[in-house]
Amino acid sequence: xxxxxxxxxxxxxxxxxxxxxxxxxxxxxxxxxxxxxxxxxxxxxxxxxxxxxxxxxxxxxxxxxxxxxxxxxxxxxxxxxxxxxxxxxxxxxxxxxxxxxxxxxxxxxxxxxxxxxxxxxxxxxxxxxxxxxxxxxxxxxxxxxxxxxxxxxxxxxxxxxxxxxxxxxxxxxxxxxxxxxxxxxxxxxxxxxxxxxxxxxxxxxxxxxxxxxxxxxxxxxxxxxxxxxxxxxxxxxxxxxxxxxxxxxxxxxxxxxxxxxxxxxxxxxxxxxxxxxxxxxxxxxxxxxxxxxxxxxxxxxxxxxxxxxxxxxxxxxxxxxxxxxxxxxxxxxxxxxxxxxxxxxxxxxxxxxxxxxxxxxxxxxxxxxxxxxxxxxxxxxxxxxxxxxxxxxxxxxxxxxxxxxxxxxxxxxxxxxxxxxxxxxxxxxxxxxxxxxxxxxxxxxxxxxxxx
Length: 452
Prior knowledge:
Elements: H1 5-15, E1 20-25, H2 29-38, E2 44-50, H3 54-63, H4 76-82, E3 86-88, H5 91-95, E4 102-105, H6 110-122, E5 126-129, H7 132-149, E6 153-155, H8 160-173, E7 177-185, H9 199-203, H10 207-212, H11 217-224, H12 227-240, H13 259-262, E8 277-282, E9 299-304, H14 308-316, E10 320-321, E11 327-332, H15 342-351, E12 363-369, E13 378-380, E14 387-393, H16 394-400, E15 409-413, E16 428-429, H17 435-446
Parallel strand pairs: 1-2, 1-4, 2-3, 4-5, 5-6, 7-8
Antiparallel strand pairs: 7-9, 9-11, 10-11, 12-14, 13-15, 15-16
Helix pairs in contact: 6-7, 6-17, 7-12, 7-17, 8-12
C-alpha cells in the first residue's frame, strides 16, 4: 500500500510552496511520537498543536527533537508565513485556522473526539482519528458525515486497527477468504476486574516507579482489563465488515506458529464461533506462563485456501498453516504507533484515501460491571474501578439496550448491577441533551436496521 507516489506528491507540493499542513490535537504519547517523525518529512508542515496545557505541548515538541524556534509562531498567519508551528489551548481555533488540511485527533476522550471530528468535517478538513475510543463510540456516523462533506475520515496508521485493516484489505484484493483478523495482547481472565490500584502489580511495576515515569494508572488499566482490545476490535469490525463473535473476544493463548490452528472455526478444530470474525490472542497461557513466539505487539490475518492448488502454494512458499494446510496466517510482529502516523496524514491529504474507515456498524463495546455495583454509584469509565468494555455484535448490543463504554463515565446508577452483567442505558441517569449522547443515539437509530 506504500509507494513512492506519496513522497513525489509531497515534493511537488513543497516545490510549489504549498506544503501539506496538519494540525495535532492532544500532545500525549501518540502525538509526541508523530511529532518526532513529522519534522523529518520535507513538505509536511505541522501548522499547530493544540493541548489543554501549553507547557505540555512545548515539552512534547522538545522531547520529539524540535528546537524552540520551530514552534515559536505566535499566530496562524505567522505560522503560514514562516513554516513554524503555533501552540494553542484552543482546539477550535486550530480547526478553523487558514491553510489547515488534515487534523490528527489524539485526545483519547470519546465526547471530545466526536466534537473535534464534527467541527473538522464542517471546516472541510480531513480527520485522522487516533482517538479510537471515539471511533468505537460513533465512528460509523462520523464516517458518513465526512463522506457527505467530501473529506476523509481515517483510522490512524501505526495503531493496530489500521494495520489489521491493511492486512484484511491485502487478503481480500488477493482473492482470499478472510477467516479471522486481530492482534496480540497480554491477557488473563482475572485482568477484567483489575483497577488502577492493582494494575501495576500485573505489569510488574511498583507504584513508585510508575509515578516516577508519569504513567497513568487508569489508561494502562484500560489496556490490561480488556477494554482497549474490545475498542480496537470494534473499530476493525466496523471498518472491514468482519462480524464479532456472539460472546465477543475469548483471548485464546496463541503464538505466531499456532495462529492458523487456533483462529479458525470450532467446526474445523479451532476456537472461533464462526469464520469472518475478529479475535485477540494472548501472550500468556491461562496459568500465566509465557506463550512461545507470542504476538503481543503485532497483528495478523487468517486466510483460507480456495482450492488444492492454492493450498499447495501455501506449502511451497513456507506459510504458517494449520495441520491441514487449508488455513494460513500472515502477520506483522510489531506496530510503531505514532512513529508511523505520517502514512495516514499523507494518504488523506495527498490522495484522499483512508487507512481504514468504518463501513457500517458491526461491532460495539458495552460496559460490563467489574464488581457488584450499587444504586447511586458514579461510573468512572474506561480503565476505572467500576466497568470494563466488552466487544459484542452491534445488533446484540442494541437489543440489550447496552450502555457503550465510551459514555460510561460521569453517569450515576439508578439501580444496582451485578458483577459481570452488562450495564444498560436504563440503569443510569444520563443527560439526553449532551452532544455526545445525542450523536450516539442518532447513530443507533441510523444503523438499527440494514446497517447492522
